[in-house]
Amino acid sequence: MPHFGPRFSFLVRCAFFLGLLLGIGSCAQPAAKPRYTIGFSQCTNGDAWRQAMLAGMKKELSFYPEVDFHMKDAKYSSTLQQEQIKEFLEEGIDLLIVSANEAEPVTPIIEEVYNRGIPVVILDRRTTSKLYTAYVGGNNEEVGHTAGNYVANLLKQKGRVVEVLGAPGSSPAVDRHLGFEQALAAYPGIQKVAQINSNWERPSVLERLPAVLRAQPNVDLIFAHNDRLALGAYQVCKQLGMQRRVKIVGVDGLPGSRGGIQLVQDGILTATLLYSPGGEEAIRTAMRILSKQPYDKENILSTMVIDSTNVLTMKMQTEKLASQQQDIQRQQQLLLQQRATYASQQTVLYVLAAALLGAAVLGLLAFRAFRVNRRINQTLGQQNEEIRSQRNQIQEFAERAKVETEAKLRFFTNFSHELRTPLTLILGPVEEMLTASPTDLPAAHRHDLSLIRRNAQRLLQLVNQLMDFRKIDVGKMPVRATEGNLVGFVREIMDVFEKPARQRGISLRFLPSEPAIRLWFDVNILDKVFFNLLSNALKFTPDRGQITVSLQLVPAENSVRLSVEDTGRGISEQDRAHIFEWFYQGQQSAARGSGMGLALALGLTRLHLGQLTFTSQPGKGSTFVVTLPLELPPALKLPTDSAAPQAMPALALEEGIAAPATTGELPAMAGSEALVLVIEDNPDVNAFLTQKLQPHFQVSSAFDGATGLRLAAESIPDLIVCDVMLPELSGLEVVAQLKGDWRTSHIPVVLLTARNAPEQQVEGVQAGADLYLTKPFNPTFLLESLRTLLANRDKMREHFRRELSVDTVTVAPQRVDQKFLADLTAIVEANLGRSDLTVEDVARSLGISRVQLYRKVKAVLGTGVTDFIQGIRLTKARQLLLDDEQTIAEVAYQLGFSSPSYFSTSFKARYQVSPSEFRALHTTPSA
């Protein structure tokens, strides 16, 4: 065997070690991924939505470093876009993504790319051909349809709408308009009064919309095809002073400081519809196509409405996604740094390969770098999976928030209704007992009843505060300011507290700096603010303490300042940070309240563009200061010709400011034969109303709307008292059906409800109600209201009787009752020659019963059906007697009288002259 010596052995060992190190280095190299080139043909002038699309692509491409991405922008030029796609073909690309400016011009070149075997992904705007690999984008028709349904629900299916369309002929504008029109077709109460075209940019709206709004000043809502157009619409409304009344809905829902989500949160837009740019989904689809993985040809992106109910959730989710994307980018930068370190170490390894020790060290470092690299890749993979999961959760969170908001609204509405119904049954009998003669009740019983009334009124105040809280929460409490004297206004409120303060020996002082301070303010809002502050001060001020109310102008700050200072125990340090929180009760307070007074005062003061602050020293008292601006924006002021709103009367305080009681019994009802129908689903309230009305009327009752409608049609009552919140068929629907049926259209209807918001009262009156009373109500007021309605109906009956007393008996069917009289008159006139014409014949011709016809005619005209027929015959006789060619007997038989003598007797009884005398007086003998 040959002997090579120690040097050869050393070289062999070095070569072996070097080969080992090189083998390790080659194993550490990850398998090389194939590289792809993707071309993106874009058409934009740099708008935010297109930038969001490109940003989404780049964000998704960060997961695919093996992809070369090239973008060409055609700047809204279809010709340029065709040329750029041809350039992509010449440069050589593996896949083409196209967001077309116009569908038809680019369709041929896209078909050419597809026919060459290059995959084509159509993004956002479709072409007119099906020769493409995949489509990614939203369903614009679904966006328009969703917007139409949301607008109808937002306007409660009644209102006037203006639509701002995108560029004419563009597929998004055409499809969104079509979906919006189809949705609105299901709501006949929604009227689209105008539509304008645009070029998708805000200046076009600023130029064209003002003329439309001036021509249509009663517009309720503007639907714009993107958020840039919606922002332009808001600016136009602001210039015209309509921004608080007109609701604006846009499309896109982009994140960011200038995106649609922020515009909704800032209250500029009422809502926006999410229309995803689709950049991430386009890249994901393209990579599935290039890597030969399964993919869908049609990838439709979902949409949703973003409004005040879910905008905060959406903003938090988008911000969280952005933060996580930044973390991914930082991790990728770290990965690149690690890879660069690894590359440099590998270079050193090759340079120092001959140095075995150095090579071993470098090999160890390379191995450690590989392990770190693998851990980073695993971390990135987990984070990517988490992002994908959170994307799916966003929609679930939004739906959940919407359901929770709706449940919250239903809770407050039902809560108010359920409390006001028992309060009606408490306050109604108590008020009636207290208004009785003083000799009817012992003094102890009257004191107990007064205590019940005060506490029931206090419970009603708490219910009203809860509803005010909800109105502030959803922005449904508008400011309606009128010009007035603030000094006199505050003095009237303080008069309510004068008696309870005097009973406890508390000095109540009012120190205005001026005899009169005139400014614009909402009396309903400031009444609640000042009443809560004074009530709070009186509650926490000890007996023989002092409350000082100061009012002064602050010209330097262009404001007026009102302070309420007491000498109570003050506010502890731990309570000061929470004193204005809803439902918070002080930890050291001996007199616990509802925790709503100060929070409500703060919310109402801010609503009035003012400030509410306080200072306090434990053991020395507290001072609350309300600062109000001397001037309010015109949008918050009522027109000078509008009636100034009256402040709601303050409730009686616990120490006993009893409401004035009326003495004496109610006068007897002259028309006690009048029939009143009570429709109320609550058995106790139904029984209470029946008990109070029976001494003065005939009363029948029903417990649901369907039964009430049936009884009304059968018995034709003189009055109907109906609750609004009825099962299955609501009170508003009952009123609408009553007023639409000529059998019952004349019957006055009084609506009783716990819904006391002004817009709800307007809704009841619009439905046709003659009177709208909120629970709890005063039984005496209800009874007098019913009497007034009956008196007004007598006047209306006299009006109809005068209409029928003229020479012609035809009545113009301008209203339901007049149409009934016109139909009735026509039937009688058509049968004047029948001497056997009966009431049953007329009722049969009208399709009703004899009793229904009698009660209807009696209610409208105050006369019987037979007298009505006789009156029409005699009126017609006056016309025929003027023609001397017919004898009196012929006239009698022509009009259905059984004999000329009966005709003469009836005519003379009606007109105090005989037929022959009437003819002699009104005809002139021929020469």
From TrEMBL:
InterPro entries the UniProt entry points to: CheY-like_superfamily (IPR011006), HATPase_C_sf (IPR036890), HATPase_dom (IPR003594), His_kinase_dom (IPR005467), HisK_dim/P_dom (IPR003661), HisK_dim/P_sf (IPR036097), Homeodomain-like_sf (IPR009057), HTH_AraC (IPR018060)
Keyword 4Fe-4S: no
One Pfam family linked to the record: Peripla_BP_4
Domain Response regulatory: 675-790
All residue ranges annotated as the Histidine kinase domain in the record: 414-632
Gene Ontology molecular functions: DNA-binding transcription factor activity; phosphorelay sensor kinase activity; sequence-specific DNA binding
UniProt keyword annotations, A-Z: Coiled coil, DNA-binding, Membrane, Phosphoprotein, Signal, Sugar transport, Transcription, Transcription regulation, Transmembrane, Transmembrane helix, Transport
Modified residues (4-aspartylphosphate): D723
Coiled coil: 373-400
Signal peptide: 1-28
Transmembrane segments: 348-367
Catalytic activity, as annotated: ATP + protein L-histidine = ADP + protein N-phospho-L-histidine
Limits of the HTH araC/xylS-type domain: 822-921
EC number assigned by the record: 2.7.13.3
Name of the protein this chain belongs to: histidine kinase
